[in-house]
Design a protein that fits this description.
By secondary structure, the chain is α/β, with parallel strands linked by helices. The chain folds into two domains: 96 residues, Urease, subunit C, domain 1 (Roll); 303 residues, TIM Barrel, CATH 3.20.20. Strand 1 and strand 2 form a beta hairpin. The mean pLDDT is 95. The strands form four sheets. Strands 3-2-1-4-14-15-16 form a seven-stranded mixed beta sheet, with no helix packed on it. Strands 10-11-12-13 form a four-stranded parallel beta sheet. Strands 5-6-7 form a three-stranded parallel beta sheet.
C-alpha cells in the first residue's frame, strides 16, 4: 500500500514550490514520486490518500541537545539525577517530532542513548545523529567551573555531556571514546561559551595542535567535527584545523566568512537560542545574562554578514532546557528568513542543506525527491505567505518518518 500526499503547495526543500503537488512513498521505503499531481503515478484501490494544504520535507535541527535539565544554571545541573534527566528527554524528543523535525544532530547530551531507543521503536522521536560527549578543555565551555575538578568530570560523564581533555593524547582518546559509542560526528568547544561560568566567549579554546589532532582522528573514521565558536579567534582556529561546521559564529567577520566559503564549512547560527535568552533575561544567572548581552547584537550582525556573503547555512536551535522550546524548533526558519536568507533559503537551511552537516555520513534526506528518505510533513497553512506558521507544533498537521505516519 502506497501513501499519496496531495497538496495545494509542494515545497521540495530545494527549488521552486509546485502548485497542486503530490508525494508518493511506501512505509519504510524512500520517496517514489514527488512533483505535480497531474504527473503522479496511478493509484491502486488499497493506496491511502491524504490531502493537505502544504507538504514539505521533514525538518532538521542541526544543533540540538537532549539533556533533560530544566534550568539554565550549571550549578543546578550538578544535582540533577541523570535518570530523571533521561526520562524528561523522552518527552522532549516526542515534542520535537510533533513540531515537524524528523532529524536532529544532537551536539552533546543523551543523544547516543536515546537514538538506540528511538531506532528500536520504543519511544517517539526524530532520527538522532549524535555527537556523544562534547570535547572541552579543562576550564573550558564544557567544564562546570564551580565544582571540584573530579566532581565536574563525574557530572559531565554521568550526563553524557562533555569530556574534559588536555593535550594531544587526551583529545585523541576523547574522540575515540565517542567513536566507541557510535558517534555520528565529533563536537568540540573551540571558544568559550555563554552558559558556562568563567570562560570568555571571545577566547580560543584548545590549541591549534589539539584542534588539528581532533579533526584528523575524526576524519580517519569518516566523521566531521562541529566546532562551538563565538569569538573570531576560535572560529579561525577551527577552520584552519578543518572543522566542517561552525556553531553560533557570533563574531564572524568578512575574513572568517571568506575562509568558510573557501573551505566549504557550514554555519549553524542558532539564532533561536539567542532570541530565547534575550526574552528570559530576568530568569538567567548573572553570568549568563551578562554574556548574552555581550554576544546578542554581534551575533545578529555576523549572521546577516554570513548570509550576504553566501556562507552555507544550516538551521539549528540549541534548545537545552527540558520542556521549554522543544517542538518550536521551526521558529529558527522564520529568524533566518528575517535575517536575509529569505523564505525558500531558510527552508533549505532546515531541509536540503542540513544533511551536509554530517559530512560523508549524510543521509539522502531533506528533499522531496525520488530516492530520498520519506521523511515528510504537512502544514495547515503556507509559510511562504505567513512566517508565523513556523514555531508552533499545532501548525504541523501530519508527520511521516521513513514513510510511516507518526503524527
Amino acid at each position: 500500500m502506497a501513501e499519496f500526499v496531495m497538496a495545494a503547495v509542494l515545497i521540495p526543500g530545494y527549488g521552486d514550490p509546485v502548485e497542486r503537488g503530490a508525494v508518493v512513498f511506501d512505509a519504510g521505503g524512500p520517496i517514489t514520486y514527488a512533483g505535480p499531481a497531474a504527473s503522479a503515478p496511478a493509484r491502486a484501490a488499497e493506496d491511502r490518500v491524504t490531502e493537505v494544504p502544504v507538504v514539505l520535507p521533514g525538518l532538521w535541527d542541526c544543533h540540538a541537545h537532549f539533556m533533560g535539565i530544566d534550568v539554565l544554571d550549571l550549578e543546578r545541573f550538578v544535582v540533577t539525577d541523570p535518570l530523571a534527566a533521561a526520562a524528561a528527554a523522552v518527552g522532549d524528543a516526542a515534542a520535537v517530532l510533533d513540531g515537524g523535525v524528523t532529524s536532529v544532530r544532537d551536539t552533546g547530551g543523551l543523544g547516543l542513548s536515546l537514538a538506540a531507543v528511538v531506532d528500536a521503536g520504543r519511544m517517539r522521536g526524530p532520527r538522532i545523529h549524535a555527537a556523544g560527549r562534547i570535547l572541552s578543555m579543562t576550564a573550558g565551555h564544557g567544564d562546570v567551573h564551580s565544582t571540584p575538578l573530579a566532581v565536574a568530570d563525574c557530572i559531565t560523564s554521568a550526563h553524557q555531556f562533555a569530556i574534559l581533555c588536555d593535550g594531544v593524547p587526551e583529545v585523541l582518546r576523547a574522540v575515540r571514546i565517542n567513536l566507541r559509542r557510535g558517534a555520528a560526528l565529533i563536537k568540540v568547544c573551540a571558544s568559550g561559551g555563554v552558559i558556562s561560568e568563567l570562560d570568555d566567549p571571545m577566547h580560543q579554546q584548545f590549541s591549534d595542535e589539539e584542534l588539528a589532532a581532533i579533526v584528523a582522528e575524526a576524519g580517519r573514521a569518516g566523521r566531521i567535527v562541529a566546532a562551538h565558536c563565538h569569538g573570531k579567534d576560535g572560529i579561525m582556529a577551527a577552520l584552519r584545523a578543518g572543522c566542517r561546521t561552525i556553531e553560533h559564529g557570533s563574531y564572524l567577520d568578512e575574513e572568517a566568512a571568506d575562509l568558510m566559503i573557501a573551505t566549504g564549512a557550514i554555519l549553524v547560527p542558532t539564532r533561536f537560542v539567542v532570541e530565547r535568552l534575550l526574552r528570559r533575561m530576568g530568569e538567567l544567572p548573572a553570568h549568563v545574562a551578562t554574556k548574552t548581552e555581550m554576544i546578542a547584537s554581534s551575533h545578529l550582525e555576523a549572521l546577516e554578514l554570513a548570509i550576504a556573503k553566501g556562507v552555507p547555512i544550516a538551521a539549528g536551535c540549541d534548545i537545552f532546557t527540558s520542556g521549554q522550546g522543544y517542538g518550536e524548533n521551526s521558529g529558527e526558519i522564520a529568524l533566518l528568513a528575517g535575517a536575509g536568507l529569505g523564505d525558500l533559503g531558510a527552508i533549505a537551511a532546515a531541509t536540503a542543506n542540513a544533511p551536509a552537516t554530517l559530512g560523508p555520513r549524510a543521509p539522502r534526506s531533506g528533499r522531496l525527491q525520488t530516492g530520498f528518505d520519506a521523511d515528510v510533513i504537512a502544514l495547515t497553512a503556507n509559510p511562504l505567505d505567513d512566517r508565523a506558521v513556523w514555531g508552533s507544533p499545532s501548525n504541523v498537521s501530519h508527520v511521516w518518518k521513513s514513510g510511516t505516519r507518526v503524527k
